Amino acid sequence: MAKPLLVVLAAFLASSLLPRPAAFGVAPGAPGGGGAGFGNWIAMNQQSYATNVALYAMKAAGDGAKALDANLTAAEEKKVSYVVDPSGGGDYATIKAALDDIAAGNTKRVVLNLKPGVVYREKLFLNSSKPFVTFLSDPSSPATIVWNDTAATTGEDGKPLGTVGSTSVAVESDYFVARGVVFKNDAPLAKPGAKGGQAVALRVFGTKAAFFNCTIDGGQDTLYDHKGLHYFKDCTIRGSVDFIFGFGRSFYEGCRIESVVKEVAVLTAQQRTKSIEGAIDSGFSFKNCSIGGVKGGQIYLGRAWGDSSRVVYAYTEMGEEVVPIGWDGWNVAKPESSGIYYGEFKCSGPGADAKKKKRVGWALDLTEAQAKPFVGTHYIFGDSWIQEPPPSTSGSSAGGGKAAGAKKLKQQAEQGAEAPAAEADTATTATKDAKAGKTSAGTTKDAKAEKTSAAATKDAEEETSTSAATKGTKEAEETPAATKE
Ligand SMILES: *[C@@H]1O[C@H](CO)[C@@H](O)[C@H](O)[C@H]1NC(C)=O
Ligand SMILES: *[C@@H]1O[C@H](CO)[C@@H](O)[C@H](O)[C@H]1NC(C)=O
Ligand SMILES: *[C@@H]1O[C@H](CO)[C@@H](O)[C@H](O)[C@H]1NC(C)=O
Ligand SMILES: *[C@@H]1O[C@H](CO)[C@@H](O)[C@H](O)[C@H]1NC(C)=O
Ligand SMILES: *[C@@H]1O[C@H](CO)[C@@H](O)[C@H](O)[C@H]1NC(C)=O
């Protein structure tokens, strides 16, 4: 019964563009040392659960609970606001111009008010040296930031941009906030099996980033939830293959997650692996979300990128498009003896499978205690940094009017250690660095995690082999019987 579906999946996913787990030094097909099988898997998941409980207890007991961290508090106290209006009525005509004017080493909350309903056709790169930036628009009439590069688009150096370079908006700085903004990549949808079809709309590489009432809209690889602690509240995320991917530690709450294709869609490709310190703390947690798509389409909840991919759905309404087996092990030959942690808790709708009759045998129907560490902003230690911004002051500048506002940002830039070069095309610079695998190098504090991201960046340029993807799928099909009986 399930066979035609899997064949379709295998054929379709052959086109997929994420790197193989082997890139992390884990040979596909030999993740868990075969024999120990189910016992190992239980032990590993229990260990993972214990780790989470410990982290949760630690955070709940103090360690900044409820108190905003000091740097953020200081930045909010020095808040400045500007209006970005392409028609000339604001402080800046483009978002890029405003970002260029922010000083490296910025310590103030810089709120950029984007005009409701306005389309900003810009490719943006927010440098890691510029934290505390907010994009603010109106959820009932959002501004749209859109570009249309794909991985196959030729860059200035004559080479394809790759997945990282395809991004419409890249955020590498910490403490980014957006509210009521559409992040979009409007490149034509890649045909199934086409090469270089990845078209990222938003890539978030900074930590402590929060998105409220935003839409992240694209096709293949829409949201690169790349690295760090991220919060998505009441957002809509649309795409096709692997459309939420990366090794962020992220909490999605009240979001609408939608496939835009009639073919097979894969909602997540969460990247997590035992072999790299730091990466093991990552994972995507969805609470009170809804999943749907094009009628007749087929949606996988996730497939494993790396040996320990981790995704949890709780209280989520699953449309009929969600396939009964739910999950795919991808290149992991024996998911049941790997570190993969895929769980569901109290989900509903025709696509949910509370009794686990048809789900892959290695996916978990979580208990309340198991779900607890994931279900809440405590999963991302949100008490110390999540703050919903007040409504946009889109009509006028809160920074003291057009001239005054612009001047302030410029002065700030001059006082900075390194004022940004006015002529530099930041988007191009970002792309070049990313292609060299340098995106994270020198921009993050965590050396170990840097390596991870550099690897991820490089890997994202590679094509996945057809046979590997097919193999993972086949294994998934065989697993339930093996583990259950
Ligand atoms: C706050 O900023 C200082 C100076 O930039 C930095 O050394 C410190 O790590 C920051 N603290 C946090 C919690 O980010
Ligand atoms: C944000 O999204 C939520 C959920 O869709 C909605 O209830 C709320 O009204 C939105 N906020 C605004 C200001 O539109
Ligand atoms: C992006 O849009 C421009 C015109 O707006 C077009 O010339 C270009 O071919 C498009 N690129 C892609 C990859 O679709
Ligand atoms: C679930 O999300 C919807 C919006 O999508 C919101 O109206 C509702 O209050 C949320 N419920 C809970 C229990 O968080
Ligand atoms: C980020 O800004 C720093 C300081 O201005 C600069 O040295 C670096 O090249 C920039 N990085 C990217 C990727 O643009």
Automatic annotation (TrEMBL):
Residues 385-485 are annotated as: Disordered. Residues 412-444 have a biased composition (Low complexity). PROSITE patterns: PECTINESTERASE_2. Residues 472-485 have a biased composition (Basic and acidic residues). Pathway: Glycan metabolism; pectin degradation; 2-dehydro-3-deoxy-D-gluconate from pectin: step 1/5. GO terms for biological process: cell wall modification; pectin catabolic process. Residues 1-23 form the signal peptide. The active site is at D242. Coiled coil: none annotated. It comes from the Eukaryota. Keywords: Aspartyl esterase, Glycoprotein, Hydrolase, Signal. It catalyses: [(1->4)-alpha-D-galacturonosyl methyl ester](n) + n H2O = [(1->4)-alpha-D-galacturonosyl](n) + n methanol + n H(+). Its EC number is 3.1.1.11. Residues 83-382 form the Pectinesterase catalytic domain. PANTHER family: ACYL-COA THIOESTER HYDROLASE YBHC-RELATED, PECTINESTERASE. Acts in the modification of cell walls via demethylesterification of cell wall pectin. Belongs to the pectinesterase family. This is Pectinesterase. It comes from Panicum miliaceum (Proso millet).
